[in-house]
Each structure stands twice: as C-alpha cells, then as structure tokens.
C-alpha cells in the first residue's frame, strides 16, 4: 500500500537541494584555523565598548546594578578626556539571563559593533557560553563577579575574586573562630558545586568535618527540609552558596527554625549589600559574608565612588562587590590601553602585567600571567542598617591562584 | 495503522466539524507550483541570504532555521494531529547533547576526556554511557533515533491510554522539567547548568573559520528544505488525511475502524525526530547546548513560533519560528531595556487579530471575500482552508 504520492516531487526537491548544497560548500575549506580576529573600529574620535548584562530575566536584578556601575566608570573616564584621546561610546546588549543569548550578543558586539572590549556577564554559565566567542575573535572580556576558579582564558580579565581570594579566606576565618564542622547549602549549578568540592578538600586537610551538603534548584523557595537537616546536624557553621531569591526563603526558614547567627553563623558568598536589602535585615543581622569590598570599606577612593554612585542613581542605592569589580575593570582597561599606547587586544594583554589601580577596595594589581587581579579578602558582618562591616581582612592583597596550585590540599582538584 | 480497535459502544460520536477531511489533493498544476516554491525557497536560502547577510547574521539565520525545524515537527503533531506538544525541548536536547557529546569526544581525541569532566567531575575515566558517542556511526544516527525512541516509548504509553488535551500538554512539560533537573544534577558528566560548551570542531572542520560556518549554514538550510519536502508528502498522503481526521474527530475515526493511537504516535515520533535533528545541527551552528535551551520555557517558545506562523499550514511554522526568533534579536538589539514588553505585545496582537497565524495573511490578501463573512466564521474557515492549500511558495 503506497501511502506517499508524488515521489517524483520529493526526488526532484532533494536533487535540487543536494545540488545547491554541493555548489555552495564544495569550495575552499581551510583547516589551519582561519580565525583571524576582528579588529576593533577605532578610526573615529570615539571608541566603542560593549556592555553585556542581563537586563531581563531572573538575573536582571543583580546585573542591572553592574551595568549602572560600568556606565559610571565610562562617564568618569569620558569626563577626564577619554582613553588615548578618544571618548568611550558604550553599546549595551541584553543577555536576558539566557546563556546562548549571551554568546549571540557577544558575537554581535565584536563583529558588528567592533567594540574594543566588552564588560559584563555574571553567572559562570554565561561566562562559559561567551568564552569561545571571545577566544575565536581574539577579543577582550572583563568579567566582574567572584567565581569558582579553575579557569584562565587568554581573552578574559577576571576582576572579581577567584576561590583563594574569597572562599578560602572565608574558611580560614571560620577555622580561626574555632569552627570544627560545617554544613554546605547551595543552589544547584556550577559555582556552588565546584565551591563545595574545594570546601570539602579544605575541610579534610584542616580537621574540619562536613556534616552535610544540600542543593536547591535555582529559584527554589522550599527550604523546610534543608533547614531541619542543618539544625539537627549541630554544625558549628553553615557555608552558604545559594544564589538569588532562594536566600530570602532560606534565611526566613533559618530564623523561624530558631537558628541564629550567634548559635550557628552562616557565611554567605553571594549576598552583598543589594541582596541584603531584598532579603530583609531582620533575617540577616549578625550573619557573615566573604567578599573583597563593602560599601563601608574605608579610604578616599571608596568615599568618592560611593558618593558618585549615589549622586547618579539615588541616595538609597547601595554599592556592592560585583559593582565595584565592574567599575574597577573599566579603569584597569583604560590603564592597560594607555600603557600599551593602542587598543590592539594583544598589545593590551601584554601591557597588563603589573597595572595597578587605586580602587575603592584598596590597591589592586593585575597579574598578567593569570589575568586575574590581586585583591584584599574581607570578611564582613551584616548590621541592622543593612550595611556590612568588616570584621577581618587579609591585611594585604592576596595574589590570585585560580587553580589553587599553591595549596597542597587542593592538588587533587584540577 | 489499519488495526481495528472496536470503539466503546457508549462513546457518543461527536459531530465532525465542517471540512474535517479535505477532499482536495494537489493536482498537476499545483505540483508545478510546489516545485517552483521549493526552487524559490532554495534560491532564497542558498543564494540570496549568503550574499546579503554578513557572517554574523548568516550564523544567526542558521540558528533560526534550526528552531524552524522543530517548528515543522510541531506543525505536524499539533497543527495536523492536535497534540499540543509543550515538551519538544526534550527531543531537541537529546539530539543536541548526542551531537555535542560526539564533538567533545572528537576534540578530546582517542582516549581523551572532555575538559569539563576533569574540572567538575574529577573522573578518572570516561563514563560508560559516554563511550558509544565517540563513534560518529553511533552518535549521528542517535541524534535522530534517540529522540524518536523516547517519543515512541512515551507515545505508546499515553496515546493508548487516551491521554490528550491539557493532560498530554502537562505531561510533556513535566518531561522537559525532569530532563533539565537530571542534566543539572549530573554536573560531573553532563556539564550541569553550563551545558556542553566550547565546541570548536565539526568532523575535522574548524568551526572558528567563517568558511566552515557557512558550510554548516548550508547543511542546515538544505536539511530544512528536505524536511519540508518530507512533511509536504506526509500531509498529502492518506496518512496525513487520517491524522487530520483524528484531530477533528478522534472517536469518529475509531468508530470507522482505525486506531487513532497509532496515527498519533507516528506524528509524535516524526516530530520528535525533527526536533532531534534540529538540536544536532544547532550545536555546530551555535557552539553550545545547555539545559537552558531545552527546559519548559524554550519548549513553550517553540510552540509560540508555530502559533504565530499558523500551525496547520506547511510553511506557517517555519515562518513563525523564524519571525519570532528574528524579532527577538532585532527588538533586543534596538531596545535592550524594553524589548520583552514589545515581544509580548507582538504575541498578543498576532493571537488576537490573526488566529490563523502569519501564514493566513497571504490567504487574507488573496481572498477578499473573507472580509464579507462574519469575523468568527471567516477566521475559522481561513485556518481550515489554509490547511488544505499548502502549495505556497516559500517566502
């Protein structure tokens, strides 16, 4: 029984398609890797830079603040005469909290707008999605958020903390406070899972016990079970790598279960001033955070940054670590370009080593080998006013070590 | 599909909607027009687009065409078969992951492991279920057969039990959610939320080379045309008519002695195969496959494209999918802050004022008499008429 009629049409169409495909791709295919890189357009009296942040979707609430802070840095630089005599012209794109969209927009910024550098991305997944795009086009990305380490792309500058500048100091602090056991709570994605691997290796080498490890899906607000497990574990402290809204539910549940900062402190690595506002200080007062910068960090550079930010965006807007790292990234790029005397990516990269900037967080230095920056680690305590006050700092900038090569206990990790 | 399942005697036979079984078959003249349509489509995709578009825009078009392939499948299952498949992301993902796993293994070389496994998994050797994907002879057929097998398994279960309507839609959504949770949970072997990224090579060709990216585009465009030809044959076959009959009066078809479950199963499996193929081609075109591409939201977005284009037509789903994806890019580039509102507005406008989808615009322009009919009837019959007349040249 013949179901299909008109086989000839099908055959005809297929032949046509095949013929067209052959004529189209039968020509040159170079195998030696024809990636030449796109040169930035710096012919006019302006130079374009890309701003790649999520302006819609779940990450928008955090990433918009980063975008605002990049814009502030751009305006400051333009007011002071620009870079190599050229005014910076920012080109904004929306990553839409969607990783393939980040890749698409990165490609657009590089090959259509021909920007000299791109600033942005937040989640590790978005960074992993754009990394091949920057490597293919030999273009530059400045990534402003603390992350899980174990990465070193020649075309990315990491201005946020790597693990040895945030998580390891956080653990050192807990150890110095006499914590012998920890409970790990995190969102279910790459950063928490990788961070917890590192924490477990640290714990094993430092006589700490990990009493439990739980993951909640991103955006989950159901924490009854996890908090009960945390409570009954009797751990000395909780290490929290939850992201976004989940923190609200977690800390509410934590308080209503009768747990407190005094009895079982929580060290968070993704809660900054902006998030404290959203979660509510009544749930967070006294809890700990690990970062490199707080709005309260002393110094003239920070007073100036905070004042400029509030003047531009409103007195009720706090400044936070990722915002500061993004702001620093733009200034570091300017310094690199001026040292190189050109916008050319390879020249900028080779000029990067040893560049310093008097940042709001203190003096930062670019390490040209890893393309990370040396930063001071700071542990803070959340106050009733929603601000975070430093309780400990590393005293001097910690050199970046994304693969934790200088830590013997981490030898099995990478 | 001629297996006879006796209809339960208690089942009342619903009155069949008008024009349930289209009597018209393409005559000789319309065959010529179909050929002309395909030639036009081929000329557009193979000659005009590469000439007019920059490398970047051509790569974007390649991505849109992959989405369009999924849409063609949804057009069959939903437009023709009435099954609201809200979980096509699963099949897209299966195809995509199968292809990406092969390309990652090929890049790692014989005996090598993908880079992310050493970072996040700390595995000493390749997991067992990854191993077959090292061979292209396994991985390539798997991109299509794996989704089809899953669809067959699921379809045989639910269609026999007469799960349909909202329940079927919810079930397919649940499947998409489950697959995402599974992928994220197994970070060490699946790449977690990051997915499989950094795909640089495609069977020995360097994907960083614009010439090879162009080649991938041509493969995708050719595949889409082939799928359209296949779909045209399918919907004009006896089977295609049976499928529409099942959509419009399942009990009546059962009463006539056909087995509606088998009829639906075939359409569902074909749609899954197309989604799998689309996923497989998406990977070299875009260089990434991740849970964010296959969950509930992208699954719904596939269906939105089909609805916007006109689900019951041959070209409607393709036009809709490309139009929605293009609008997303164009709007977000021009209005990075407010584009989501504009996109939402666009969907509302299309669904409210053009329920037959974009494909009905053409018919609207041709058939002025429609305007004279009452609006409600006019719209209904429009979709129906479009369903019968599929010999529209590509646009």
From TrEMBL, chain A:
Pfam families tied to this protein: Peripla_BP_5 (PF13433)
Keyword tRNA-binding among record annotations: no
Keyword match Nucleus: no
UniProtKB keywords: Signal
Gene3D superfamilies: 3.40.50.2300
InterPro entries found in the cross-reference section: ABC_urea-bd_UrtA, Peripla_BP_I
PANTHER family tied to this protein: ALIPHATIC AMIDASE EXPRESSION-REGULATING PROTEIN, PTHR47628
Protein's name in the database: Aliphatic amidase expression-regulating protein
Residues of the signal peptide: 1-20
SUPFAM superfamilies xref list: Periplasmic binding protein-like I
UniProtKB/TrEMBL annotation, chain B:
Keyword Transmembrane helix attributed: yes
Lipid bilayer topology: Multi-pass membrane protein
CDD domains per the UniProt record, alphabetical: TM_PBP1_LivM_like
Presence of the UniProt keyword Cytoplasm in the record: no
Keyword set, alphabetical order: Cell membrane, Membrane, Transmembrane, Transmembrane helix
GO molecular function, one term: branched-chain amino acid transmembrane transporter activity
Ranges that cross the membrane: 35-53, 59-78, 90-109, 137-159, 166-185, 215-235, 265-290, 302-327, 339-365
Low complexity bias spans: 12-25
Protein name, as recorded: Urea ABC transporter membrane protein
């Amino acid at each position: 029984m013949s179901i299909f009629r008109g086989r000839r049409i099908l055959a005809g169409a297929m032949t046509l398609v095949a013929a067209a495909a052959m004529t189209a791709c039968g020509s040159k295919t170079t195998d030696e890797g024809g990636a030449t890189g796109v040169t930035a357009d710096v012919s006019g009296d302006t130079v374009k830079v890309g701003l790649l942040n999520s302006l819609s979707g779940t990450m928008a609430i955090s990433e918009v603040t980063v975008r605002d802070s990049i814009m502030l840095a751009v305006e400051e630089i333009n007011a002071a005469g620009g870079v190599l005599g050229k005014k910076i012209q920012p080109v904004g794109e929306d990553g839409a909290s969607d990783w393939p969209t980040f890749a698409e927009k990165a490609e657009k910024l590089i090959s259509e707008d021909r920007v000299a550098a791109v600033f942005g991305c937040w989640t590790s997944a978005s960074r992993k999605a754009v990394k091949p795009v920057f490597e293919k086009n030999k273009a530059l990305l400045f990534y402003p958020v603390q992350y899980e380490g174990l990465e070193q792309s020649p075309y990315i500058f990491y201005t946020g903390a790597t693990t040895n500048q945030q998580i390891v100091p956080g653990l050192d602090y807990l150890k110095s406070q006499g914590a012998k056991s920890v409970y790990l709570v995190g969102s279910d994605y790459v950063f928490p899972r990788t961070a917890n691997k590192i924490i477990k290796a640290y714990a094993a080498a430092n006589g700490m016990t990990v009493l439990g490890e739980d993951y909640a899906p991103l955006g989950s607000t159901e924490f009854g079970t996890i908090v009960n497990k945390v409570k009954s574990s009797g751990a000395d402290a909780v290490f929290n790598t939850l992201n976004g809204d989940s923190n609200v539910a977690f800390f509410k549940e934590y308080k209503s279960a009768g747990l407190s900062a005094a009895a079982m402190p929580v060290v968070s690595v993704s809660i900054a001033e902006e998030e404290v506002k959203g979660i509510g200080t009544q749930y967070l007062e006294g809890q700990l955070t690990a970062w490199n910068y707080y709005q309260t960090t002393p110094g003239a550079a920070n007073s100036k940054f905070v004042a400029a930010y509030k003047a531009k965006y409103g007195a009720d807007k706090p400044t936070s670590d990722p915002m500061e790292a993004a702001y620093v990234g733009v200034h570091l790029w300017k310094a690199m370009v001026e040292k190189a005397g050109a916008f050319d990516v390879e020249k900028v990269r080779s000029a990067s080593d040893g560049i310093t900037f008097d940042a709001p967080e203190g003096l930062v230095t670019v390490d040209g080998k890893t393309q990370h920056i040396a930063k001071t680690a700071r542990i803070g305590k959340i106050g009733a006013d929603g601000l975070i006050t430093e309780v400990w700092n590393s005293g001097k900038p910690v050199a970046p070590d994304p693969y934790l090569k200088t830590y013997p206990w981490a030898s099995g990790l990478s | 599909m001629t297996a006879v399942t006796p209809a339960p005697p208690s089942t009342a036979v619903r009155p069949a909607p008008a024009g349930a079984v289209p009597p018209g078959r393409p005559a000789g003249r319309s065959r010529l027009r179909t050929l002309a349509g395909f030639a036009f489509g081929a000329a557009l995709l193979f000659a005009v687009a590469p000439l007019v578009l920059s490398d970047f825009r051509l790569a974007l078009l390649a991505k849109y065409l992959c989405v369009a392939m999924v849409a063609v499948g949804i057009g069959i299952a939903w437009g023709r078969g009435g099954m609201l498949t809200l979980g096509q992301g699963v099949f897209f993902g299966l195809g995509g992951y199968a292809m990406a796993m092969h390309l990652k293994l090929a890049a790692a070389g014989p005996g090598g492991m993908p880079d992310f496994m050493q970072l996040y998994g700390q595995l000493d050797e390749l997991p067992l279920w990854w191993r077959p994907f090292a061979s292209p002879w396994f991985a390539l057929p798997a991109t299509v057969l794996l989704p089809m097998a899953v669809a067959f398994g699921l379809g045989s279960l639910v269609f026999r039990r007469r799960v349909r309507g909202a329940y079927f839609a919810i079930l397919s959504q649940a499947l998409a959610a489950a697959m995402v949770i599974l992928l994220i949970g197994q970070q060490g072997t699946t790449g977690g939320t990051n997915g499989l990224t950094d795909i640089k090579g495609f069977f020995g060709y360097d994907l960083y080379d614009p010439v090879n990216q162009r080649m991938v585009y041509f493969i995708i465009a050719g595949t889409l045309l082939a799928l359209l030809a296949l779909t045209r044959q399918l919907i004009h076959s006896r089977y295609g008519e049976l499928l529409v009959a099942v959509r419009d009066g399942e009990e009546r078809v059962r009463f006539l002695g056909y087995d509606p479950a088998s009829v639906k199963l075939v359409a569902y499996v074909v749609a899954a195969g197309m989604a799998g193929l689309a996923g497989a081609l998406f990977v070299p075109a875009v260089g990434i496959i991740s849970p964010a591409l296959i969950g509930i939201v992208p699954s719904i977005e596939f269906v939105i494209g089909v609805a916007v284009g006109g689900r019951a037509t041959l070209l409607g789903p393709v036009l809709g999918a490309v139009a929605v994806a293009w609008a997303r890019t164009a709007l977000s580039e021009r209005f990075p802050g407010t584009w989501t509102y504009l996109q939402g507005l666009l969907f509302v406008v299309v669904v409210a004022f053009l329920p037959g989808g974009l494909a009905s615009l053409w018919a609207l322009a041709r058939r002025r008499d429609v305007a004279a009919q009452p609006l409600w009837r006019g719209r209904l019959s429009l979709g129906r008429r479009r369903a019968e007349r599929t010999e529209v040249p590509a646009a």
